[in-house]
Specification:
Blueprint lengths: L7 E6 L3 H4 L13 E6 L7 H9 L4 E6 L10 H19 L6 E5 L5 H18 L13
Parallel strand pairs: 1-2, 1-3, 3-4
Length: 141
């Protein structure tokens, strides 16, 4: 597992975390295995979308929205937080593990924090190992 590079999907609010991906333009380093999907608001994230990421092979997932009390759509980040908590319960029930999913709040001007989150999630998932749902190489079923 020394060469395990986790597949991490980051669902990012257009108004905050996606803008915070200025980390790239600021030349801050974060792992290339983090795939960013832009959302109009973190509050638009759906349970099915998070669970589909698991089914599609993600080893870890995070949702990044506006700072609490500073959502462009007033309460979107609170809705996202509730949905993430509910999906974490489901992930524990099905054996994926709730620690493979996290919700973060990031301000649009904080590329440094975004890079820290990407690195933190990558290290967390590396320590957990591959998704229990990903088939091993050579497994044809």
């Amino acid at each position: 597992m020394d060469n395990f590079e986790p597949k991490i999907v980051a669902f990012c609010c257009h108004y905050s975390a996606y803008s915070a991906d200025l980390a790239g333009s600021m030349r801050l380093q974060y792992p290339p295995n983090v795939r960013i999907i832009e959302l109009p608001c973190s509050g638009t994230i759906d349970h099915k979308v998070l669970l589909s990421a698991v089914e599609d092979g993600a080893d870890g997932i995070f949702v990044a929205g506006c700072m609490e009390g500073d959502c462009h759509f007033t309460r979107g980040n609170y809705r996202a937080k509730k949905r993430v908590e509910k999906v974490k319960e489901i992930l524990d029930e099905i054996g994926f593990g709730s620690d493979r999913l996290e919700m973060y709040n990031v301000s649009a001007d904080n590329g440094t924090r975004f890079a820290e989150i990407a690195n933190e999630m990558t290290e967390r998932i590396r320590s957990l190992g591959p998704s229990p749902f990903n088939k091993k190489e050579g497994d044809k079923n």
